[in-house]
Amino acid sequence: MRTQVVIVGAGPSGLLLGQLLSRQGIDNVILERKSADYVLSRIRAGVLEPGTVDLLNEAGVGQRLAEEGLPHDGFSLAFEGRLQRVDLKGLTGKQVTVYGQTEVTQDLMDARQAAGTASFYEAEDVQLHDFEGASPRVSFTFEGRRHEIACDFIAGCDGFHGICRASVPAGAIETFERVYPFGWLGLLVDQPPAAHELVYASSPFGFALCSMRSQTRSRYYVQVPLDEKVEAWSDQRFFDELRRRVPEEVAAAVTAGPSLEKSIAPLRSFVAEPLRFGRLFLAGDAGHIVPPTGAKGLNLAASDVHYLFEALREHYAEHSNAGLDAYSGRALARVWKAVRFSWSMTNLLHLFPEASAFDQRIRRAEFDYLTQSQAALTSVAENYVGLPY
Ligand code: RFL
Ligand code: PHB
After folding, report:
1. 129 catalytic, yes or no?
2. Beta-carbon contacts of residue 237 (< 8 Å; ≥ 6 apart)
3. Do domains 5-71+97-177+268-346 and 180-267+352-385 have the same CATH topology?
4. How far, in Å, from the CA of 285 to the mean position of ligand 1?
5. Which of 39, 64, 189, 221 has the fewest CB atoms lying closer than 10 Å?
């Protein structure tokens, strides 16, 4: 078998890259370790930057998003019971869109299936060969048989635990990491959201987030210790804890109900450098991870895909490798700014087990500053809606 680009991973980065390439007539094959149903069952991101929405439109999958996505002009930060709205629209002229990662993934899978582009789900033991040379290959097991695809390029879109970054020789890659001493316990429930906009709340009991998927479906998170087990959290315990952490008026509007999903995600900041190794390119979570506090993970996957798609288009249409050569530097410059923003939001809003009274005063001072300075709020707002590509 032969194709132009082998894409490893059918998460949002792999599917979006595949869709953009296919529309440009660039042949590609997706190899995904899990089943499509499994990929769709993972409840993750909920907030799309306008740049991500533009890219989904460019990929031809913006229709349901335009109909069902919820445009948000702002969100709120709560600190020790005080609420501060961040007026995204007023401060930046832009909005974000609440539309679940599950829906983005579904739209991309539907478009790929409609176009009849090749995808292998439940592809086992994917291995990369000769990506440092001119003729890379990817082998995998499908339905009990070993297959091999020769290609021009490999796109490593296989997430943090994928095989692509792990295939790079240790001496060729440098990694930077911060692991936070807590996770987020998330719960999905078919009840109207507690507030019209997202509320990120810092409290003496830890962080909580009130988010949503639609007018009738809410997504809530509470900060928990790293060793916490999801089985220890009944729905009742979750809602009691959530209400304790958010401002009173928000707590009063939280409507409990049986959870549709409940899971714990650890928080981590991680960057690999570079993102290119010969003919292998890493995009999305394969190359970097941010804690979810800034809502940046999926949006960074989209900006990586934008740079990589433009570079591949330029290679095939204009016979220029300038974009491919610039890919890693361009993507990383945007990635690091989102890593900084996500880290600073995480520091501001979470309770760190080792924090001193000094640290707590600094966090309070930072929140006070946000409530008093238009410049400080504008900085939060412009990062939240996404820095330019
Ligand atoms: P994914 O989604 O992890 O997809 C990678 C795919 O690769 C497959 N794979 C393999 N396939 C073949 N062979 C192998 N050896 C393979 N190894 C892995 C995997 O099965 C998978 O299908 O990475 P991608 O596409 O780069 O997308 C990244 C996003 O999923 C991620 O950044 C976001 O979900 C992060 N995130 C958020 N991002 C936002 O922009 N806004 C948010 O509001 C937001 N909230 C969140 C989040 C992530 C969370 N968790 C659970 C980590 C909230 C949470 C709780
Ligand atoms: C979500 O709705 O899942 C969500 C929203 C905002 C975040 C993280 C997660 O910062």
Report:
1. no
2. none
3. no
4. 6
5. 64
